[in-house]
Amino acid sequence: MEKKQILLLPGPTPVPPAVLRAMGTPAIDHRGPEFRELLSEVTEGIKEIYQTQNDLLILTASGTGGMEAAVTNFLSPGEKALVVSIGAFGDRFERICRAYDVEPEVLTYEWGTAARAEDVAERLRRDTAGEIKAILVQHNETSTGVLNDLEAISRARGDHPALLIVDAISGLVAADLKTDAWGLDVVITGSQKAFMIPPGLAMLSVSQRAWEAAARCKNRRYYFDLQAAKEFFAKGQTPFTPAVSVFFGLREALKMLRAEGLAAAFARHRLYRDMIRAGVKALGLELLAPDEIASPAVTAVKTPAGLTPRDIRTPLREKYGVVTAGGQGKLSDSIFRFGHLGYVDPTDLVSALAALEMVLAEKGFSVSPGAGVAAAEAVWRRYLG
Amino acid sequence: MEKKQILLLPGPTPVPPAVLRAMGTPAIDHRGPEFRELLSEVTEGIKEIYQTQNDLLILTASGTGGMEAAVTNFLSPGEKALVVSIGAFGDRFERICRAYDVEPEVLTYEWGTAARAEDVAERLRRDTAGEIKAILVQHNETSTGVLNDLEAISRARGDHPALLIVDAISGLVAADLKTDAWGLDVVITGSQKAFMIPPGLAMLSVSQRAWEAAARCKNRRYYFDLQAAKEFFAKGQTPFTPAVSVFFGLREALKMLRAEGLAAAFARHRLYRDMIRAGVKALGLELLAPDEIASPAVTAVKTPAGLTPRDIRTPLREKYGVVTAGGQGKLSDSIFRFGHLGYVDPTDLVSALAALEMVLAEKGFSVSPGAGVAAAEAVWRRYLG
Q: What CATH architecture is B18-259?
């Protein structure tokens, strides 16, 4: 029989049945009234989640396409960007800058740590000539499971004119992000994370200041041109044929998120984080990120000495149906990751911890069976009150 | 009650129920064994349709993303491309070239006519310095309903070293296209056309000569970098999270197309073309393209004097549920289009012609009711033999 899978990836995430059904809605005219209504409804729903009045555009692409759009629409060749990198996706911003002849100056942090707002403040203070045109930073760094303090980084910008461009692809909905209150000029996200829908769409919010920069920007772009997107959105269309099925799923998922409310969604993701972290610690394994900066969306676990990540991930998937992510880049041999965002249930995490106990026992580690699950249950009980 | 719609667009096209159901398949790990198998299966299926042994890559984007990839991976800034433009999508190739600092030299034809291979041959003969690095051309021009003679254009290239880059987004599966036999270096298509699946994926085949050009190419690209795609495809992955749901739909659709066979699919699309054209002519309306070059995928109809395209399209959609496309660019005030590709049935075309008869009669045109349908039936009977 086909094995039941518990998908604990930092995207794609499990998709609720109602959203899966909506994905099978028959085709419509993407230049007709049905799509115009659909686009308007999902745009408003996403803006609520973004906590913004800024323009909100949706591109048919994965999140990385959104990151590219955030570079090529706002930064010209030769201009300098301050890339705040705490992991693989910070490095991706750097690579996109280089690919488009933007000059990245990288503030690098050890993987597993968060960015320090005071470093950003200090660097901007030294930029008396105003050379830095944008700060590129992750909200949640997927590769390490670390949440940056965006509010502090926003304060650190002070009145420096640099745009603040945020990759919130894996963080949005899982953790608070106040686009307008924090003055975030461009915020990027993707469909296949805490939105609970399949991959295929990238979203970006764009502030008035960012549009002014876009008007001056000389970089090369066509498919990801946001000015064209803005013009088409004004008439209820997209410049190029959109992934309509994913829009149908998005509409369903946004109804669910609105019914839940943002505060409840954040609390739910904190529960996931705390359950997994308590369970893993109780089994004697080490976590990559310290508690204070731990991501509510994904948790990186250090592989115990003598084992590779594959030694744990392969039996988790093949014997127990628990699908985890490996490490990225320099962490690929030393960590594995539990994604816990979107349509995840506490029971999924309990199952995953039980499976982890089984695998560790099989590998000869001395674990007391049930210890991880018990620790997670304790967290869960406190949450239920 | 929600009105039944007959979707006759040149994409998105109607989606078969089995494909719609497949779109609702639960999420999988895009870096796991399930996706590796899925990617391998659909890649082989698409290569059969392309009639190619070349590499075949799939991007999460609409077709225009594929067109951009075909420019930015093979043409460097300052290099010259011969853009053969017979309509709006030829013009799009020109605009993408300009956006990426490639120099387009445009062979322009009146909209509604086909490219002349002898013009291409003549221009290349004069290019003794080998300045033209690529020929960009449409297989089927969606905006006018004209099919180019790609085989003749390929012969016209002779031994000139220019790459032959083909936008087959709306033509593939509807009309024959022999990638290898005709020496087509790059062929682009999209999911939402004759593949019968929703939008979200672009496909490209890449010849060995094109890879050699890519290795020298200095243009800016990141999300659409085909070398990265090739490396990831070799391990059964994509560089960035793919639109997995559309892949599920694609697998189903490819099974259907394989069961049908390519020759039968081409014949089926010729039937659609001939039915619509016979019906429209019988109603006294004029077609934009002459029979010899008429597209099997989409038919452009000239709006009768005294009416705008909207006068016909709006009642077709609102009263009869028949969804047609307007004209693009300079034809937007003078034509409307029936798309007839993918999961379309002869009965849909009969219904559309009946609805057109109703609308024309309402508008005071003297049509003999049933004349359009009768003409289409005659074609249909000949096809059934």
A: 3-Layer(aba) Sandwich (3.40)
